[in-house]
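[Q] Does anyone have a clean structure-token version of this?
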Amino acid sequence: MVYQLDAYRVSQCRDPDDNKFLSLANQIEADFILTIDHDLLSLHKMGKTKIVKPGDFLVLFSNTQVY
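[A] Here you go.
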């Protein structure tokens, strides 16, 4: 059983079972979702949350300097 707050309920994914991940990302204001799930990847972005493959995330941040 999955509990979601109505204010954060999301139903954007073509696979309804994946909406719980989008809802959680929305609730915590996540910057990224890392996944290999094609249903989620097809969205590219939800609000401010970017949906990317783990390898793409590593490439994106391998060029970023952290101080």
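[Q] Thanks! Anything notable?
[A] Residues 6-62 form one domain.
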